[in-house]
Every structure is written in structure tokens, then in C-alpha cells.
Amino acid sequence: MSARDIAYALGAAQREGRNWRCNCPLHGGHSLTPADGRSGTLLVKCFGNGGNCDSNEILAELRRRKLLPQPEPRRNLLNIVATYDYRDADGALLFQVCRLDPKTFRQGQPNGTWNIKNISRVLYRLPELVAGRAATDGQPPRSTSAKAKRMSTGCATNGAYWRRVIPGAPVNGVASSINI
Fold first, then answer.
1. Closest by alpha carbon to 63, among 11, 21, 9, 12?
2. What is this structure's pTM?
3. Dist CA 129 CA 177 (whole Å)
4. Position 150 confidence tier, pLDDT thresholds 50, 70, 90
5. Less packed terminus of the chain by CB within 10 Å, N or C?
6. Are 176 and 169 contacting, i.e. CB atoms less than 8 angstroms apart?
7. Is the pLDDT reported for residue 121 higher than 80?
8. What is the percent of the chain where pLDDT is above 70?
């Protein structure tokens, strides 16, 4: 709908220059100014109610009244080909590492946030390591160590992190190992 159509639908439509003035759908005062934006979007500003009407709330009310269409849901542009779960020793999911196509990796929280700020870093398949079962990383090339009946794991971050957390931990050493 155009700004003109919105103004007439809300009542008391009045032309003011290039804009319109009409009743605000939130507080009812004659103080809303809808305008047509350059890209076909609707711009709204309420000058009444002490300037307390939020534009996003106005747009939400217009959608509720079916004067504006619902926004299109955002498409997931990430092509996730594999997900690696990182769990604490008790098995609770802390974060995930997703492998994307083309090959890149993103770390995220179970709630969908693409960061792992304030999340404890743990080794991959930590519960299996604690239980003493042979755990393989699942992320090549470490997965080949299962054939050799050894425990193997990796971390979602670079080895420098583990040097800070576990002093003396091997970093980028091909033949290095930690006996647990």
C-alpha cells in the first residue's frame, strides 16, 4: 500500500507537501506522517504522544491490521554440509561448528547465534574421552586414528588457545600427543 492508502485507511487523511498526516494506530492522535520511500518502502514517523511512538511498533500494528504485508522470512544463505557438536563432560551441548560449502567453518551457539563468546571451549567429543572410549574427531584427517585404536580429538579453535588453557599442550605438532 502507498502512504496515501495507509493515511486514508487510518482516518483523517490530510496531504502535507509530499507527505500525508493521519491518525496514529498506536495512540490515535492526528500525528502520524506516512511517506513513500525511494525503494518502495513505507516510512513512518509519529510526532504526537511526546514522540514516544516507535516506528517499528507502528509498522507492526499496520501489519497486524493487514495494511502492510508480513515481511519475507530471511533465507538461510549458508549451505551447511556437516555439523560438529561440542559438548561438556556431562554431554550438554555447548556450541557447534558447521562446515559450509564452499569449505569454510562457522562456530555458533545452539540458539542460532553465530559466535561462541562466553562459551567454554572443550575438546571435540569430550564425553567419550572422559568415558575412555576411542573417540575420533570426525573431521579429517584425525578420524583415521580410530583404525589405530587410539583416542583422538581436536578443538574448534586454533592451538594457541589450548596453549593458554593447558600450559605445555602441544600445538601443531604432528607427532605430539597428550596421555590422559
1. 9
2. 0.43
3. 14
4. low
5. C
6. no
7. yes
8. 71
